[in-house]
Amino acid sequence: MSGEAGPETGGPRSEGPRITDPEKTVGLEIRGLEVRYGPVRALRGVHLSVPGGAVAAVLGANGAGKTTLLRAVSGTLRFHRGAITSGTVAFGGSRLDGVPAAAVVRRGVVQVPEGRRVFARMTVAENLRAGALGVPGRLAATARERVLDLFPVLAERAHQRAGLLSGGEQQMLAIGRALMAGPSLLLLDEPTLGLAPLMAARIADTVRQINAQGTSVLLVEQNAAMALALAERAYVLEVGEVALSGPAADLAASDEVRRRYLGVGATHSDRPVGTDSGPTPEEHERPARHERTRLARWTA
Amino acid sequence: MAVFLELLVNGISVGAVYALIALGFVVIFKATEVVNFTHASLLLAGGYVIARLHPLIGFWAALAAGIAAAALVGALVEFLILRRAHVGSRGVLAIVTIGVDILLTTELTRRIGTEVLALGDPWGDRVLRLGPVTVAETRVVALAVAAALIVAFLLAFKFTGWGVAMRATAEDAETAALMGVRLGRVSLSAWAVAGALAAVAAMFLCVFPTPGLDRGTAAAAMKAFPAAILGGLDSTTGALAGGLIVGVTETLMSGYQSELAFLGRGIGDAAPFLVMIVILLLRPSGLFGTKEPARV
């Protein structure tokens, strides 16, 4: 049940000012990635790509290796005594594996960690300033305008301690803080975890906006409905391996994904996605569109 | 009353110097969560360079050289030893710093021998008379310099990019790295700054009324340790408060030793530690420390 299929849909799906230079929004390429925490193998043979300007989603249950995948990209495995033992991670043609976290940020890849992890003892304004520490000062002012435009509430709360914000506001701050570095690729780790449905929908809209402005997004989510509605391409991780991959519409229409991640009974063909003998575009268009509509309604 | 005021002014002045040393402890702890027992030898190294160089290049140039040397020693300890010591526990790293301190102190005390080295400061033994109170000029300068440095550091922590990086790292190193903060640089700069502060403190600890730098000077740094602990090991404000409490307590207890004879001799030296124990019993995180049980 694995493999590549379907045309790349690529590119933002809504209009908006593009902040990031499109020439710099080159893709993320992960090839044959294996990650170990000591003797424990957390990822094996993972292939994944996020084309420039696209949104890709990674789905999977707890412990499937989703967060480990992001750590491998952002260079933070060493904080958890993990290491890439084989394979490559490249962004914009240059290797990221073995590169320290701060250098990954300078290359335009920034992660919003799971659980927000805002600097609780610092003010909102100081958190945003911390986000811009890895980039030249002149870029910080532009980035700050973009962030406050996306999240006006952060301007209102500028001098409040971040630890006193609500969960949704903290998530906005965490995303805003990451955007301060002007990333070409934003890594989002469970951005809607623990948020009320309305706030989760708001975050989803924001991700769309960020992407429309030219930033690629790699989204790790347990909320499969939201992730598949946002992404052009999706990957399902199971026990450290990519079990399924393909256009998000195809995965949303897949009975296996519907049953296991969307909580819906099997109603369509059992044909697997991600195989050469997959459905024709006409065949998968109908259920995919139906699924998209349903998902869009769910996240609205 | 005049005696009390004199003791109080002297205590505040000595306390300000202890606060400089404690600030070094705190800066390193905030940046790396390592309790740095190497501080005493950084202080001794700075003082030693000043003492040896001032006859050759003059006091101010020697002071600058001493500050630079202590900063360099601090940076080298971080770069050559702590950064490469891949141990999981911060407690183990603290013990590593004890080992480094013993090595450095042994070498420096061997070089100092039995001498008492003058630092060639320009204030000499002059005193200031403010009404009934007589204070050594060195004490007044120490208070002014320490206060200025501490205020400068508090402002730098609050407003500069370095300060924001330091505080972000102290709160969550992994997330700080995800924001592009270079943790190695933060750690290196913390050790260098702590060394520089220790050298300034060494200078003030070794001028009048102290005869000069000797092999016992390093012990003075250990008095700043209770200052840092009782203030809260991760609080710059706590370092200031702790330094002042230790300085005033020590000076008052020593000044009134004859009235406190029933407590035995040397109560002035023991008092800071007694105060630390009492404060920690009442406030386990120190006066201004973050209330996190995981902290040392």
Automatic annotation (TrEMBL), chain A:
Annotated segments matching region Disordered: 1-24, 263-300
> Is rRNA-binding tagged as a keyword?
no
- Do you know which CDD domains this protein is assigned to? ABC_TM1139_LivF_branched
Q: Which InterPro entries does the entry link to?
A: AAA+_ATPase (IPR003593), ABC_transporter-like_ATP-bd (IPR003439), ABC_transporter-like_CS (IPR017871), BCAA_Transport_ATP-bd_LivF (IPR052156), P-loop_NTPase (IPR027417)
The UniProt keyword set, sorted, is: Amino-acid transport, ATP-binding, Nucleotide-binding, Transport
Q: Which SMART domains match?
A: AAA
Please report the stretch or stretches of sequence annotated as the ABC transporter domain.
28-264
Instruction: Show the Pfam families listed in the entry.
Output: ABC_tran
Q: Which GO terms describe its biological process?
A: L-amino acid transport
Q: What are the recorded GO MF terms, alphabetically?
A: ATP binding; ATP hydrolysis activity; branched-chain amino acid transmembrane transporter activity
Q: Which Gene3D superfamilies match?
A: P-loop containing nucleotide triphosphate hydrolases
Compositional bias ranges of the Basic and acidic residues kind: 15-24, 281-294
**Which PANTHER family does this chain map to?**
HIGH-AFFINITY BRANCHED-CHAIN AMINO ACID TRANSPORT ATP-BINDING PROTEIN LIVF
Q: Which family does it belong to?
A: Belongs to the ABC transporter superfamily.
Report what the protein is called. Amino acid/amide ABC transporter ATP-binding protein 2, HAAT family
Organism from which the protein derives: Microbispora rosea
Q: Mind giving the lineage of the organism this protein is from?
A: Bacteria, Bacillati, Actinomycetota, Actinomycetes, Streptosporangiales
UniProtKB/TrEMBL annotation, chain B:
Under the heading InterPro entries, the entry gives: ABC_transp_permease (IPR001851), BCAA_transport_permease (IPR052157)
Pfam families noted in UniProt:
BPD_transp_2 (PF02653)
The protein's UniProt keywords, in alphabetical order, are: Amino-acid transport, Cell membrane, Membrane, Transmembrane, Transmembrane helix, Transport
Gene Ontology terms: cellular component: plasma membrane
List this protein's GO terms for biological process: amino acid transport
Residues annotated as transmembrane: 7-28, 58-81, 87-104, 140-157, 188-208, 228-248, 260-282
Main localization (coarse): membrane
Gene Ontology MF terms: transmembrane transporter activity
Q: Does the keyword Transmembrane helix apply?
A: yes
What superkingdom heads the lineage?
Bacteria
Where in or outside the cell?
Cell membrane
Query: What is this entry's stated membrane topology?
Result: Multi-pass membrane protein
Similarity comment: Belongs to the binding-protein-dependent transport system permease family. LivHM subfamily.
Name of the protein this chain belongs to: Amino acid/amide ABC transporter membrane protein 1, HAAT family
